[in-house]
Specification:
Number of helices: 15
CATH class of the largest domain: Alpha Beta
Oligomer: single chain
Order of helices and strands: HEHHEHHEHEHEHEHEEHEEHEHHEHH
Strand content: 5-15%
Structural class: alpha/beta
CATH topology of the largest domain: Aspartate Aminotransferase, domain 2
């Protein structure tokens, strides 16, 4: 195994750059970039009453309506935030925010019900709430990443104040049946939140049809700028201010408006509205080509996630007998940018909590790679990965004392 320093020593540029880490972040859509450049001249404070302030305010409200229409919501149900993590924090910390309307959510009942495979911006808040004495329960999932429904029914019997279940998992791409989960929660009187950061723009969403109370989203996952997102708050749902200060967002989120970011977010959603159907179909075909090519060319692998209820561009593969960070860095030397559950560059060698929750063992979880495809990927990109990856895996397995083909070849490939 080699680490980051080895990667930095490479002197030969790769044949091409293939970015397949769209679940981590996305490049700006050219039209979003254009809107941002034009937006630099809209510098007025949107809270000011003069002409320049009203100009900024109008652009913000235009973006709010675009987002609301896309989600099937009302404009007044959209709160602009600094991103998905802030939105998630805002909702979860309402359980113990001190307000009479929200604190009563947890009095004498289970405070938070969530899952073992949530994003850290939910799991770490949940742990923080536990440290404050709030009761939290973590739902198990099946081997595909779907919520264990029997465990869910039993947990709902404890009348949780808030249920928070992500719509699409960022690592394995599994989609949850949010409509059914929300309906079951509402029958017990629980509020329901979904982290939809990975889902917006990739699957159709109507918040009113889903029957949810809160939804989080971040612009940079959909070819928009970083540092801006939204929180959907259903009319009449309890709400506590997370960032205190001025009167912005009807007193729900203080701070001078990020006008430029909101303009970019609105443009990104507008573009997704027109492009999503065709683009999702194209990306799914590329993902399937990549998956089938890996299965044909590389033995002893395991495909993680649900076979059908999955994000169109996500493919998570575990390779027996090799470590994910080594695969990632060798791919990077060939110009292929992907992600893994653990990496020496991050200072952590812990295996993915998502894969462990699905029953994948620690050794195999360490050998996982997430390919996440997006709008700039092509058939040529996929074929380039299929050209380079088998050689890399073979080379790493030859160096690995943990891999012996006979141990894995008896029906273990997937």
């Amino acid at each position: 195994m080699f680490c980051l320093e080895d990667k930095q020593r490479r002197s030969v540029m790769p044949e091409r750059i293939v970015y397949m880490d769209y679940n981590a972040t996305t490049p700006l859509h050219p039209e979003v970039k254009k809107a941002l450049v034009e937006g630099f001249d809209i510098f007025g404070n949107a809270s000011s009453m003069h002409t320049l302030g009203r100009q900024a305010h109008d652009r913000i409200e235009k973006a709010r309506k675009i987002v609301a229409d896309f989600l099937g919501a009302y404009p007044e149900e959209i709160v602009f935030t600094g991103g998905g993590s802030e939105s998630n924090n805002t909702v979860l910390q309402m359980i113990d925010c001190g307000s009479a309307t929200c604190r009563c959510m947890s009095k004498g009942r289970l405070g938070l019900l969530t899952t073992q495979i949530e994003h850290p911006s939910v799991l770490n808040v949940a742990q923080y709430m536990e440290n404050k004495g709030i009761s939290v329960e973590y739902l198990p999932v099946d081997p595909t990443g779907k919520v264990d429904m029997e465990a869910y029914r039993k947990a709902l019997a404890k009348n949780p104040a808030l249920v928070s279940i992500m719509m699409a998992n960022n690592e394995i791409g599994t989609l949850q049946d949010i409509k059914t989960l929300a309906r079951m929660a509402k029958e017990t009187g629980s509020l329901f939140h979904t982290d939809a950061v990975q889902a917006v723009g990739k699957v159709p969403i109507s918040v009113h049809e889903l029957g949810i109370d809160y939804l989080s989203f971040s612009a940079h996952k959909l070819y928009g700028p970083k540092g801006v997102g939204i929180l959907y708050v259903r009319k009449g749902a309890p709400y506590c201010t997370f960032i205190h200060g001025g009167h912005q967002e009807e007193g729900r989120r203080a701070g001078t408006y990020n006008t430029l970011g909101i303009i970019g977010l609105g443009k990104a959603i507008e573009l997704a509205s027109g492009e999503m159907k065709e683009e999702v179909s194209r990306i799914r075909a590329l993902r399937d080509r990549l998956r089938e090519g890996i299965q044909e060319r590389i033995p002893d692998i395991h495909i993680n996630g649900h076979p059908t209820d999955i994000l169109p561009g996500t493919l998570n593969v575990s390779f027996y007998g090799v470590e994910g960070e080594s695969i990632l860095l060798y791919l990077d030397m060939e110009g292929i940018e992907v992600s893994t559950g653990s990496a020496c560059a991050s200072g952590s060698l812990e295996p993915s909590h998502v894969l462990l929750a699905t029953g994948v063992g620690p050794e195999l979880a360490h050998g996982s790679i997430r390919f996440s495809l997006g709008r700039e990927n092509t058939v040529e990109d996929v074929d380039y990965v299929l050209e380079k990856l088998p050689t890399i895996i073979a080379r790493l397995r030859k160096m690995s004392s943990a891999y012996t083909q006979s141990a894995y070849s008896m029906g273990r490939s997937a």
